[in-house]
Amino acid sequence: MLNFSFENQTRIHFGEGQIAKIAGEVPKDAKVLITYGGGSIKGNGVYDQVVDALKEHTWFEFSGIEPNPKYDTLMKAIAIIKEHNIDYLLAVGGGSVIDGTKFIAAAALFEGDDPWDIVAKQQAVKRALPIGAVLTLPATGSETNIGAVVTRDGNKLPFMSPVVRPQFAVLDPAVTLSLSDRQISNGVVDAFIHTMEQYLTYSVNGKVQDRFAEGLLQTLVEEGPKALQPEHKNDLEVRANIMWSATMALNGLIGAGVPQDWSTHMIGHELTGTHGIDHGRTLSIVLPAVMKVCKEAKHDKLLQFAQRVWHVSEGSDEQKIDKGIELTEDFFKRMAMPVRLSDVDLGEKDIDLLIEKLEAHGMVALGENQTTTLAVSREILNTAL
Length: 385
Ligand code: NZQ
Ligand code: ZN
Description:
Strand content: 5-15%
Number of strands: 8
Bound molecules: 5,6-dihydroxy-NADP, zinc ion
Oligomer: single chain
């Protein structure tokens, strides 16, 4: 196992009715800005629950944070923050709203010239407004982690800072019942691939991390398809297991002390940046190709994955690995996700631009061994055609 330091201070309130806990979490004298997206929270009662919980507080609101949040949209919140002396942000939504709020929190106290430098030049974020989160879409893990991804002019770039980690997060599985099938699938597959990015590398004998990851993968494989079935549509136990899996998949725990990959995500971000494809759907296209192209480097873990997650026991090691990859693709298809570039109407002609973008963003040595050069990324995209 590799050395590591681990902490995650986000206090989690999990379960039905827990939105009311916001009242005790947000300081009584705070001037709060509630941030949200396109309005789903008004249709499913989440907005009303939040407003009810904040009835003793002074609060304002900022809406319109879009999926894959845009820099220009987020910067509009800064004026409201200045005007009303806002000193607490409450993000209510999915990964985009929480990520966007993290950027707002950092940009509001940024001392440099241009807050875009936070992602473009990876300028360290040392101060940020405090954040609380009410999660409505289990997927990204943003509700308890230190990362965020922001888009400007087709450039989708991440940043990380411990000061933007939410102080608390409310995870109520009941609020996920209003999700469309498409967003359920995107979320389940995103969480599955977060787990894979921290698992499918090379072994450092991190038994706890491996078995924890395998448990999350198996839970997502069991519960994900159920959430799409009419007989389980309103099953809160299914939603609870998906929600907790997604948070645990990217809260730092399973990635502590083990190598990490993240090439699927970095290639996926270029697909979203250039073609607007949903985050989760970029990943279900790229991961199978990464598994195939990087088969040699990931050999032992691919075999372990096939045996332990999919219970493959027949054939040679190579056959078991291939079967594991096939079953992973089948799972994505059962979740109604694309698994090839052609499934989203992209082809060979589109690869050059994606490679140019990877180069422009410095994504030239990806993967656990930094061996996914631009040439390897091209091979991955060709394999995904
Ligand atoms: O905007 P509203 O109206 O709320 O609708 C949203 C949005 O249209 C809707 N939605 C959310 N909760 C709902 C709901 N609709 C009905 N009922 C509910 N309960 O879902 C749509 C998509 O929301 P979005 O927040 O974009 O989805 P997701 O949570 O998948 O977030 C994706 C973003 O997170 C980033 C991605 O790159 C992408 O920008 N990521 C953040 C990470 C992190 N911070 O650690 C890691 C991830 O790998 C990822 O990169
Ligand atoms: Zn992701």
